[in-house]
Amino acid sequence: MPTVKEILDTMDYGPAPESTTEVRAWLETRGTFGHFIDGAFVLASDSFATRNPATAEVLAQVAQGSGADIETAVTAARRAQPAWAALSGHERARWLYALARHLQKRARFLAVLETLDNGKPIRESRDIDIPLAIRHFYHHAGWAEMAEAEFPTLAPHGVCGQIIPWNFPLLMLAWKVAPALAAGNTVVLKPAEQTPLTALAFAEICAEVGLPAGVVNIVTGDGRTGAALVGAKVDKIAFTGSTEVGRMIRRATAGSGKALTLELGGKSPFIVFADADLDAAVEGVVNAIWFNQGQVCCAGSRILVAESVAKLFTERLTARLQKLRTGDPLDKCTDMGAIVSPEQLSRIRALVAQGEAAGATLVQCEGQLPAQGSFYAPGLLMGADPANPASVEEIFGPVATLTSFRTPDEAVQLANNTRYGLAASIWSETITLALDIAAQVKAGVIWINGTNLFDAAAGFGGMRESGFGREGGREGMEAYLKPSAPPRAMPEAAAGGLDAAPMPGAPSAGQPAIDRTAKLYIGDKQTRPDSGHSYRVAPQGREIGLAPLGSRKDIRNAVEAAHKAGSWGKTTGHNRAQVLYYLAENLAARQAEFEARLTEMGADPSEADATIRRAFYYAAWADKFDGAVKSTQSAKVTLAINEPWGVMGVVCPDASPLLGFASLVLPAIAMGNRVVVVPSTSMPFAATDLYQVFDTSDLPGGVVNIVTGAKDELAKTLAQHDDVAALWYVGDAQGRTMVEAESAGDLKATWAIGNRDWTDAQGRDFLTRATQIKTIWVPYGT
Predict the structure, then answer these.
(1) What is the value of pTM for the model shown?
(2) What burial letters (b/e) apply to 137-175, b meaning 16+ CB within 10 Å?
(3) Catalytic (active site) residue 297
(4) Residues 6+ apart with CB under 8 A from 105
(5) What is the DSSP letter of 464?
(6) If you write DSSP's letter for every residue of 350-362 in order, what string do you get?
(7) pLDDT, tens digit (0-9, with 9 covering 90-100), for 290-312
(8) Residue 548: beta bridge partners?
């Protein structure tokens, strides 16, 4: 053993291993783990081994879940849910507090178990993961206590199916289980097959505190088990994992009515400006990429550095890279542990090889790796252009690309040059520059002069192909609630509509002359459809005019026009309110005209007055739907900003042709979105007549674009369009299924509902669905 003097001379780290005695005794006592169903462990007919990735040793045998196991667990959860939801918020809060306290008592045990099963350094498990998991249960105990007052019109979904990955096993469990229980749901959770042990330890804690049987059920297994859970009779699916699997889940749940939240992959930018504290930014890279083996979906794996400091930053970063210690994860002096599995290690190697083959140069830590186990030396890929596979694909390993930029605009272009949008890290001593870039980067979470900051009070989730929905904070709690009184369903209009054989701009032989032909409204002008065809509008069998038969190209043109109107989302809420007030006044001035049009179509003329009121209502909300400042970590201000989606598709009901249109379009544009709208097919004139109101109300061209025609064909085009960020659809079950399935390509957020009574269709729910939350972490104080 070296002397103190020798240590001071060499500054070498000595070994500081964490004891595994207690954990190994626990594993030996259990032997083979069964599923945790209805308050007890149940052995299965099949099992598999879970291994320590640092040594490849078998830690335990774990049950392989079947479809029958999932069905049993869901049945238990269903049986337990009414009684659990019937408890007062205070009573549920006490259960959650109990879980938090028992997790806290076993924090060191759980940290060692997590490191054995996952391979991450004990410092990360001990100092980050387990404390955060505990924090989530304490935080959501508070939400349970407050639920009756804070969410008086909301109710639990029922039974929630939850699927979590292997990178943060216990923390991801806490992210999902805590809000679900606080809201009054029961859960069936499937942990990752590589890392099931802390979930099973949590199951024992549930039994130990006496949690009612069936409230928490844990079924272990591989992807087949997860697929069975997605297909089971649950009310909500919450999934964290790869984008590819997220798409499969979106398609599998389409039309099922199941609520869905997806937290998926990322290729997050790490932007370093010339005035940044370079040493702090270097440590930020180390924390984001290497201390956790890069096995974090929000890791800043694309490092973008201002050209003027790129050489200096690269020198410091590569020097720091060579000092990293890769080895035994249980050693408190280890910086980087093991990759979770040999399969993941092979994937990392393959993607890095593709990056090198495309022209990048790999610089790796020169330290010696352990002789056994799944280890990979941390590295940088230099010279990877934006199209390099290493710059495009999520490597999910301790390797980052490094690219330079010249201007802030170029930094934003490079940062947004990805199909993902989970997180970003921005480094600058000029706070105005950092906040300006934060507003432009398309990501659900932005860290300024920091990285990988998490808290139960702060929402976490992505944009674009990183998924939709949030976990944490009020928004995460709301994701496990639904309206307690669903809206009154209404049938769609049954009169008239689109003929099977569209007319090329004029009635066919034998048809009476028609004196009215509407046009599409795209950008700031009326236009004829690309196809040149129109269709007969015949509500109640009585022809009243021709409407354009919009096509895929018309949708493309409308989306392009909507994107050109991007300044609408940047204007102040007050300015949007003024436009909507003006619109309401102009509509009121022409109320009699719209009442006559509604009467002509056989619709209720009172829709005109209700639409005017709705315009005033959303004008009032335009500058009042605020974000929040979250109480999270010290020396931080954590902002939750309501941002518009951007370009939205809106497919209106056939019934209520004016009020249904206004009820969907007005909240969307009040929040700063631009919309491409498919109005009522059978009664489109109530919507197309509005273009004159828009033109005289200072509404910028391109904010509202109207394309008439075959409803579901146009909806399908909108669902498939990669430049449409969100889609609202009102229609029958077949149409809803189609929209949700077709949206899986780019994983856009959808709201597919049946027709409803539109007289009371207004409120915060519409505004919430018209926005996505961006969480921004800003330095504050010391």
Answers:
(1) 0.92
(2) bbbbbbbbbbbeeebeebbbbbbbbbbbbbbbbbbbbbb
(3) yes
(4) none
(5) G
(6) HHHHHHHHTT-EE
(7) 666 656 665 668 999 999 999 99
(8) 534
Task: Return the CATH superfamily for domain 269-456.
Answer: Aldehyde Dehydrogenase; Chain A, domain 2 (3.40.309.10)
DSSP string covering 139-162: HHHHHHHHHHHH-TTEEE-SEEEE
The whole-angstrom separation of Cα 693 and Cα 706 is 13
677 membership: H or E segment, kind and range:
strand 674-678
Question: Which of the four pLDDT bands, split at 50, 70 and 90, describes residue 781?
Answer: confident
**Confidence category of residue 504, pLDDT binned at 50, 70, 90:** very low
Q: Is the dihedral of CA 18, 21, 27, 28 positive or negative?
A: positive
Expressed in angstroms, the distance from the first to the final Cα of the chain is: 40
Asked if residue 230 lies in contact with residue 256, where contact means CB atoms within 8 angstroms, the answer is: no
Give CA–CA dist 397/389, Å, rounded: 14
DSSP assignment, residue 752? Answer: E
* C-beta separation of 132 from 174 below 8 A: yes
Looking at 342-351, 495-504, 518-527, 636-645, which range is the least confident one? 495-504
C-alpha 268/C-alpha 472 separation (Å) is 20
Maximum Cα–Cα distance across the chain = 106
Contact between 390 and 354 (Cβ < 8 Å): yes
- Say how far apart CA 429 and CA 367 lie, in whole Å: 33
Which of the residues 297, 298, 365, 652 is marked catalytic? 297
Q: What backbone torsions phi and psi does residue 647 show, to the nearest 5 degrees? A: -100, 125
Please, which residues have CB within 8 angstroms of residue 215's CB and are 6 or more apart in sequence?
77, 80, 84, 181, 186, 187, 206
Read off the pLDDT of each residue in 543-560 and give the average, rounded to a whole number: 92
CATH match for 19-264+477-481 among 3.40.605.10, 3.30.420.40, 3.40.630.30, 2.60.260.20 = 3.40.605.10
* Total number of residues shown for the chain: 782
φ and ψ of 335, to 5 deg: -85, -40
Percent of the chain clearing pLDDT 90 (strictly above): 81
Instruction: Say what the pLDDT of residue 69 is.
Output: 97
Which residues on adjacent β-strands are paired with residue 269? 302
- Kindly report which listed range (144-153, 262-271, 407-416, 491-500) carries the lowest average pLDDT score: 491-500
Residues 636, 781: Cα–Cα separation, whole Å: 7
Residue 342 predicted with pLDDT over 80: yes
Does residue 687 carry a pLDDT above 50? Answer: yes
CB of 265 closer than 8 Å to CB of 466: yes
pLDDT tens-digit readout, 645-679: 999 999 999 989 999 999 999 999 999 999 999 99
Answer whether 19-264+477-481 and 521-630+643-771 agree in fold.
yes
- Indicate the average pLDDT of the chain: 92
pLDDT tens-digit map of 408-462: 999 999 999 999 999 999 999 999 999 999 999 999 999 999 999 999 999 999 9
What number of CA atoms fall less than 13 Å from residue 225's CA on the CB side?
A: 30
Q: For residue 579, which amino acid is it?
A: V
| Active-site annotation holder among 18, 145, 263, 478 | 263
Structural domain boundaries of the chain?
19-264+477-481, 269-456, 521-630+643-771
The answer to whether the CB of 521 falls within 8 A of the CB of 704 is yes
